[in-house]
């Protein structure tokens, strides 16, 4: 979706928070969140943070044009950075439409504590994949607190009622009532619970419940907290409802409730048995079934064959294929995983983007160029391989026309036919060949018409001479 349909420079905004942020949150953002969401998103969060005066929970009103000037970023980059913050749970956005503009309220959410972050099934795995094992372990150790064997000590902490005198009941009731009447919405402190926003429709809980034994109450067993845990683990470890059902049944406590720690352990054991000790990687995933368009179809041409290959191949395998089986650089692996995690592109769409960029850029994955295209495709909500190929073809034609116009403007002459020296993807070359075939066909038809006219004229002259 284009950013200008959602956000304009004249739109107003203000920032709110229900909790004060400090140095610890700043370090967590820089060291743990930034590798996942990028510098632009962190800069936007910090700018919102700076809009809050000391001990203030709400900022004054401003416009997005001022935000663009302060960050030195175009509005589409700010829009993408905002979505990145929303997706990872650092920002909630509210809007109110008015006659001439829209006003937004940006509610800052505090980052997770380091302990919550490293215990989170999604973020910890993403950080591991983004930074690599050594840097990940180094960061984790930095935030670890040395444990103390409390069994060897005797606790001597004073209790509240040993230190403070109690109030009379009448005093407590009066104070509480007066405060609540004067500040009915005050002190709604916000503590990050270590959760990330997921859409429930992305996982089929009804199928999971249906597969449970009849003596289990699925609705009671899978309460909101249990569903959040199941959805996180299913997302990271790519588990289907029927696989989750077996693991859930092995992870119940004595009260027939889901034991979260046991469930995590069971999922990780299952993953290790299936995939070894390597952490789950986004780059090894293939196009989800609901976004495949070539299932049960026989490829009719090179375009269809390319679509099938993109749908059935993971981005990392796709890179290995292009490199004739050679090891893919870790930087390229991280880049394609970023396209899936940060830009929410489907694996098959990433394959098309990779093929398009590498063929157009001398077999190099230029990060800035890739991310620029990824941002556009994400805004246009490109989810299928066919749509991605169609958009890439259109972009290629636009680039060709721009190059022709630029060359003509520089030389002061009419644009000459554009000839690209790079080897294009077959699915782009085919369209080019089709265009050439159409042009050649038109020339042949014109030539035949001309010869036909000449032949008819010759017959007319012969008839005329005979009559004479």
UniProtKB/TrEMBL annotation:
ATP-binding as UniProt keyword: yes
Composition bias, Basic and acidic residues: 419-435, 447-460
Domain Replicative helicase loading/DNA remodeling protein DnaB N-terminal winged helix stretches: 9-202
Gene Ontology molecular function: helicase activity
Stretches assigned to the DnaB/C C-terminal domain: 332-390
Positions of the UniProt region annotated as Disordered: 400-468
Keywords noted in UniProt: ATP-binding, Helicase, Hydrolase, Nucleotide-binding
Similarity comment: family membership: Belongs to the DnaB/DnaD family.
Protein name per UniProt: Replicative DNA helicase loader DnaB
Source species: Salibacterium halotolerans
